[in-house]
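User: Fold this one for me? It's carnitine O-palmitoyltransferase.
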Amino acid sequence: MAEAHQAVGFRPSLTSDVAEADLSASALQEIYLSGLRSWKRHLSRFWNDFLTGVFPASPLSWLFLFSAIQLAWFLQLDPSLGLTEKIKELLPDWGGQHHRLRGVLAAALFASCLWGALIFTLHVALRLLLSYHGWLLEPHGAMSSPTKTWLALVRIFSGRHPMLFSYQRSLPRQPVPSVQDTVRKYLESVRPVLSDEDFDWTAGLAQEFLRLQASLLQWYLQLKSWWASNYDFLYVTPTPVQAARAGNAVHALLLYRHRLNRQEILPTLLMGMRPLCSAQYEKIFNTTRVPGAQKDHLRHLRDSRHVAVFHRGRFFRVGTHSPSGLLSPRALEQQFQRILDDPSPACPHEEHLAALTAAPRDLWAQARRSLKSRAGEALEAVEGAAFFVSLDSEPAGLTREDPAASLDAYAHALLAGRGHDRWYDKSFTLIVFSNGKLGLSVEHSWADCPVSGHMWEFTLATECFQLGYSVDGHCKGHPEPSLPRPQRLHWDLPDKVHLSIALALRAAKTLSGDTDCHVFPFSHFGKSFIRRCHLSSDSFIQTALQLAHFRDRGRFCLTYESAMTRLFLEGRTETVRSCTREACNFVRAMEDREKTVGDSQCLSLFRLAVDKHQALLKAAMSGQGVDRHLFALHIVSQLLHLQAPFLDQVHSEQWQLATSQIPVQQTHLFDVHNYPDYVSSGGGFGPVSGTGGPGALNPDGGAGSLHTCLLPPASWWGGTWAFCSPRPVPFQVDDHGYGVSYIFMGDDTVTFHISSKKSSTKTDSHRLGQHIEDALLDVASLFQEGQRLKRGCRGRGEEDAGNRRGSLPGH
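Assistant: Here's what I get for carnitine O-palmitoyltransferase.
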């Protein structure tokens, strides 16, 4: 959609006898500049795509090869073994004076063919190298000779100075696991949570599935696998000026988009050299999830030069660029301040319009068709925006008067909002509160946590440490009074949409009011202590969570933990089923250790549970997980109208505990030791609501194309986020589940985000939080160094046992 102020200079004036176009000089200049920008973008993308396509080679390597061939000819050598002469004979005869030119052209063509063959060989070799996953299965801290050799070869073939998408052509496709192995692993994962009778019944269904349907469904998956490719700060508010914070944040986000378009963001490398897939970065900006009657689709624009803004029930369109380029932070602050100062009221039903994006998708799809016919320009301004901005009229954030309650409210405000102040279908919504606090609400179908987190880390570091603020809290620089005012969007809402808005708002408010959030930083120990125990930090936390949940509910349950599969092309996530037999044995021992077993036996069982979790995590990352394979088989069975009772049983499972670790990827941007107040509070997601695992995807690896699972809104805040994908659920919903995410900040703090439903009589986010803290201290006491920690914490806890729940240690 064209910029509104760009169209002002071009006014066709029609008379009865002639049509005249009044072209102003500014309009002509704007047309010229817009065309110039467009060509620059196309040339830049063409050059970047070319560099990506030839990586790990470079254009200079072609010049070197051509020069070597010319030198060989000068020395009367023929490295082409006669091919250059044959090429020369095929070229047109331009006469004697051009005989030398024909030779140079023939040599250039031969050099190009040889160069292309060498690049293809490099791509094949690198893909074969990247298909090796033996390094994942080795014990922590150990490295075999084959892995050392593999690392050396990867370093040789990986080239230098990669761009964001340089490795995409060399990443292997995700394999289809053996269906027998998947079923065996599945049965192993459900054994701890099923009675003997239920397990025997499930095992019988599994054997029937392997005998009758598995081979046909697996064949389709094998065929498809060959055809398709598969942080705001916790303690610091840089400025209390809402418009200024929005100006710097929007500018920083668009700087990230600029770097993304130029592929100047470095690809993520494990161990400094194993690349991960970068495909998810493509849809961070200019992306909207469009509802459909049967399925949604993602609409992605190549460019967008405005953001959509919501404030006090009104929608605005704010241009982000001028003829000279991206608007400065101070100019953006000016535009946001104009919106804050605008006294005009919201129109009837406009205030709650965005609640439709949280409604059941078929209802929203029907209402959207009406909006498109009656308010198409306003709808396009929102859906075609780079992202959505919500200027909240209320303050939020941590307060010293009541840190625990204020932090929980902060999380809830970002996770759920009021149900009508986020456009949940946008790739993300930037929320800026009236006191300068901010965060993100992220739609989950286009990408997973690490991609959004990478963008948000860059944004927070840039807006605070690089852009900065003046002493009076405003963005640095000067306003631009000549900028056109933000454009107010007007919605012509049909009568039949009014009822849809009311229904959507009622459901959204009910869901928001039923969401219980609890956030607490655990600062008794962190990564450094776990590292000294020679254990994986993630496996340590996951095993302790099993102990905490058992104490909370008195039973074991299926547990979901997300693991990335970006080692493969277009990989998304896989499920780690963390409730293992080894973890259950450890939990039972811990509950009986004072009566029948000692600390040494509990420690041995704990190490076994950690080792088992590590094995499951590595298998999931290497494409040998359970749930995505079973889900893909289920989808194929639905497409073939084939009854598979075993797959129906798997798809109807209830996950009562969903967990995820939020990774910190750019530690160089935040100096936690010198700036301890500039720490993130991590991020979270809503309580689990069904099966298939949170984030269950279609067989293509892309979410949002099937009615698969309901995910609550995802919000980044304090440097964190949560997920949002409102979708009808075609399976039984469990209202008694927990969502738990955690982030390691520095070496000595772990921040937990816990969510559940207030309406549940079986869950309580604060109660589980206390159990998590106790479980971590109990596990730490199994180690000699951890016994001192527990004694100190227990002594302090007895003094304020009634007030400790939800407290902020050390604050």
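One thing worth pointing out: Residues 4-12+20-54 form one domain.
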